[in-house]
Structures are given as C-alpha cells and as structure tokens.
Automatic annotation (TrEMBL):
It comes from Pedobacter insulae. Belongs to the glycosyl hydrolase 29 family. GO terms for biological process: fucose metabolic process; glycoside catabolic process. Residues 17-352 form the Glycoside hydrolase family 29 N-terminal domain. Gene3D superfamilies: Glycosidases, Golgi alpha-mannosidase II. GO terms for molecular function: alpha-L-fucosidase activity. This is alpha-L-fucosidase.
Length: 456
C-alpha cells in the first residue's frame, strides 16, 4: 500500500482512477489507431540509396559514416517538398471507422519539431510547405465526423526550436534560451486546444530529457492550466516528473496523469501488475517503426491475427490497444496497413461485443484464449481452437455466476453447454463444456458469448 511518506508539491494530485464520464468513455474504447506522420515520411527510412538503421521517424538524427553528407541540413529542408497530394483525411477516418477504432492519436508535432498545423509560433510548420493547408484540422474534423475521438500527440523534444535543450542548461545563455522554449511549448499547446476544441486529450512524448525532467513546477502548472482551459481533457502519465525527477509515478509511487502511458510495444503479463490503474498499449506493426519506412521486407510484420491476440490481451486486463499507422509522404496509407485494417474490421464487425466496453472478467485466463466481460455477458475469445472441438470453462465456485447459454458470434449459432461431472475433484471450480460446431472452420480468433446467471 502506498502512503505519502515523501512530501511532494508536484507529485500525483489524485488517488485512484478518474471517475468522470469522459474517462469512462476512454475505458470503453477497446481499439484505437495511432498515426505518425510528418516530413520523415518523405525519406521513409532511406536516402540516396542508403538505409537508416533505426525508427524512420528518427531519421533526422542519422549520423556517422553511413549518413549522407550534410544530412541534417537536408532533412531540415525536406518540408519544402512536403506536398501530400493523396492525403484525404476522410478516407483515413473512414478506414479507421471500418477497422473498429474508437480513438485516434495523431502526431501534431514529432521530435523534429515540424508542426502539422499552422502554428503562429514557428515557421517550421505546414504553412510553409507547398501543401499549406492545415492537416490537424482536417484530421480532427474527419475523425470526429466518423465518431472517433481524437487525441493530439505532442513531442516536448523539439530539434528545430533554437531554445530547446536536452541537457540541463548550465549557462545563463542556455537558461534564457530554454525559458523561451518553455513558453513556446506552452503557447503551442494552448494554440492546439484553441484551434481544435474537439480534442479529447493530449498524448505527450519526448519527455525524458534531463532538462524537461527538471521542470516539475512548470510542467505541473502547465498541466493544471491545460486542464482548466479544456475541461475533461485526458493526459497520460508521460507528461511530467515530480520534484525528484520521478516520471510516470511520483516519489510515493502514485501515478501522475489519468492513465498509465508506459505500455509501448509491450503488454503486461498479468492484471496484477497494473494494480487497478487505467492503461493503454501503443503497438507498431513492424517491431519498431512508427513513421513510414519504405522497406518492410527486412523485419517481421505483425499479422491481423497477432494484433487481435494483443487486442484481447489488453482488453482482458482492462486496457486499450492502439495500433500504429505510418502514412507515406504523399498521404497514402500503405497497402499492408490497409489490408491489416480491413482484416481487423472484419473481425470487430462480428466480434466487437468482446472488446467495446468489455473488461476483465475476474476469471483465470484459459490457455486457449481470453475472457472479457460486459454486464452479464462473458465473452470467450478463442485464439487457439482446442483440437477436440470442446471449450472447457473452469469457473471458481466463488464466482457465484454460471453460464446459462452460449452463442458463437460468427453466424449467431447457439452452442450446447454441459456441466462436467468431476466427481470428488473439489478444486474449487465448476467445469462446463461448450461444444463447437463440427464444421467450424475458423481461420481467425472467434468469440463465444456466454450469458451468465446467478449461481445459487
Ligand atoms: O521516440 C518516440 C518514437 O519515435 C515514437 O513516437 C514513440 C511512440 O510511442 N514514442 C517515442 C519513444 O518512446
């Protein structure tokens, strides 16, 4: 149990999860989409026949012998070519809707500092590209029109701003420059919330620099200001550090922010590690590429099946899964991602009940899949179909609920349930067998919806 043994001014300001309607909505999303888009989509991980050996959105930091000559100057001028003629926010939003995404996290500005909206506070923005039009506005409006909630990704790291420092400023000149950068950051954030009032939350990134970690008071004040300015705003645990430099969790172990934002490309092994906190997981389709990389051939690409498994893993532990997309420099979603989106959409259309508003079921995980639960419905998502065609459920007696009927969501087929007589086994469980149709030829995970009634 956590007690406030260390007095803190800039630690967590709340005990437990938020209980308001907006956060309840966040909890019910199940599936989200992340989009990383910026000028890094032009090189797509490659330049002059050379490949950058890292995440494509980091390509500006390419150095050493393998980097093209004058690389950073080249990169910093790429915006003059940014003209995504194929960009159609409504097309993206429609695809996300068909996929079954309930929220979007969109990169308004990544570490390179390029702002995809016409920011008054920098020249390094969409305004000065051949494209000119406000991309953030188009995205917010299009997704909102599809009923998808929009969260704005914002990187504190800004390689373009002259006042940005990664290390703690040591000289008076550096300190002044950094103060200027802090005001710039505040201005841009207020500008985003002013311009795009439909925003549901801010998704902060690039907050690990020593210089930023020292800004506990500034960041805490700013977070309060942003929340007051935009009531209901959702901000994760990645924004600020406390006065001892502790990030995500303050010096007393309490989470700072509305949900745990540390689950990046990984999922918790058990629900216990989460200690009841809200959380989501952001996941790349390749191992670690967020922005567009034109070469996906040299790494493992997660299948829709892999992602469905992860989605159920997340929801069965009260989390959301956010799948990342990296459109190309013209504004096209790559074909591989479109295929994956379509496959996920086919799945969510039939089986969405198992993920939207569904939560941890309070039961041990079956080896062949995941349980989720909503009201009196228990959903059993089968990832690995048992070869005998029988799903055995082990329900602890203490659960006080038992299955009354079962329906296979594909085709709405009623399934037979029998109670298994275990004789004197007495291990505390009651066992039930659900018989799958003999002709079930499932090539993707399938869901059995089980109505629960009180067990006396
Ligand atoms: O450095 C970034 C990375 O490029 C990407 O944006 C991810 C998304 O969560 N965040 C940072 C790494 O944690």
């Amino acid at each position: 149990s956590k007690t406030d043994t260390i007095p803190l001014k800039y630690g967590s300001h709340r005990i437990g999860n938020r209980t308001d309607e907006m956060m309840e909505r966040w909890r019910s999303y199940g599936l989200g989409q992340f989009i990383h888009w910026g000028v890094y989509a032009i090189p797509g991980g490659h330049w002059e026949g050379k490949s950058y050996n890292g995440a494509a959105e980091w390509i500006r930091s390419w150095g050493g012998a393998s980097a093209p000559a004058n690389w950073q100057a080249t990169y910093d001028n790429l915006y003059k070519q940014f003209n995504p003629v194929a960009f159609d926010a409504r097309k993206w939003a429609k695809q996300a809707k068909d996929m079954g995404a309930k929220y979007l996290i969109f990169t308004t500005k990544h570490h390179d500092g390029f702002s995809l909206w016409p920011s008054k506070y920098t020249d390094y923005s969409i305004t000065n590209t051949p494209y000119k039009k406000d991309i953030v506005k188009q995205v917010v409006d299009a997704y909102d029109a599809e009923g998808i909630d929009v969260y704005l990704y914002f990187s504190i790291i800004d390689w373009n701003h002259p006042g940005y420092r990664s290390g703690v400023p040591k000289t008076a000149k550096d300190s002044l420059a950094y103060e200027d950068f802090k005001q710039f950051t505040r201005n841009q954030l207020l500008e985003l919330l002013t311009n795009y009032p439909k925003t549901k939350g801010l998704w902060f990134d690039g907050t690990w620099d020593a210089a930023w970690v020292k800004q506990s008071k500034f960041a805490d004040d700013l977070e309060k200001e942003l929340r007051a300015f935009h009531p209901g705003l959702i901000i994760g645990s990645r924004f600020r550090a406390d006065e001892n430099g502790k990030r995500h969790f303050d010096s007393n172990g309490k989470m700072m922010g509305d949900y745990e934002q540390g689950w990046e490309r990984k999922l918790p092994k058990s629900i216990e590690v989460l200690e009841g906190r809200d959380w989501d997981c952001v996941m790349t389709i390749p191992p670690n590429q967020w922005g567009y990389n034109s070469d996906w051939k040299s790494s493992y690409i997660k299948t829709a099946h892999d992602l469905t498994d992860m989605l159920l893993h997340a929801v069965s532990m009260n989390g959301n899964l956010v799948v990342n997309f990296g459109p190309d420099g013209k504004g096209n979603i790559r074909p591989e991602e479109s295929i994956t989106a379509a496959k996920l959409g086919e799945w969510t259309k039939v089986n969405g009940a198992a993920i939207y508003g569904a939560k941890y079921a309070g039961l041990p995980k079956p080896d062949y899949g995941y349980y989720t639960k909503k009201d009196n419905k228990l959903f059993l998502t089968v990832i690995n179909k048992p070869v005998n065609g029988t799903l055995r459920l082990a329900i602890p007696r203490s659960y006080k609920q038992k299955p009354a009927n079962a329906v296979l969501l594909i085709g709405n087929i009623k399934l037979n349930i029998t109670t298994v007589d275990m004789g004197m086994s007495g291990d505390g469980n009651i066992y039930y067998d659900i018989q799958l149709p003999a002709n079930l030829n499932a090539t993707s995970p399938f869901v059995v919806s089980i109505e629960l009634i009180n067990a006396t």
